[in-house]
Design a protein that fits this description.
Largest sheet: none
Structural class: mainly alpha
Radius of gyration: 14 Å
Number of domains: 1
């Protein structure tokens, strides 16, 4: 499959996933904290990762932490 098709499929899958999350009333705060924990535990286990991946993950974690601070 092409990269573009993968991207489009992933966006559609995320839309479906978030429909389920919204239906059951899972809070944004809960999901954000769960993602932060997951990304931080992955970065601890992958100290030898390529700089691009760890930078992206750390940037995302920082943004999620700022988002959670609003709650």
């Amino acid at each position: 499959m092409s990269r573009l098709a993968d991207i489009l499929d992933n966006h559609q899958n995320l839309d479906h996933f978030f429909s389920i999350i919204k239906h059951y009333g899972v809070s944004a705060e809960y999901l954000s904290l769960a993602l932060i924990r997951q990304f931080e535990s992955e970065s601890e286990g992958n100290e030898d990762d390529e700089e691009g991946n760890s930078g992206y993950s750390q940037e995302l974690v920082d943004d999620l932490k700022q988002f959670c601070a609003r709650f």
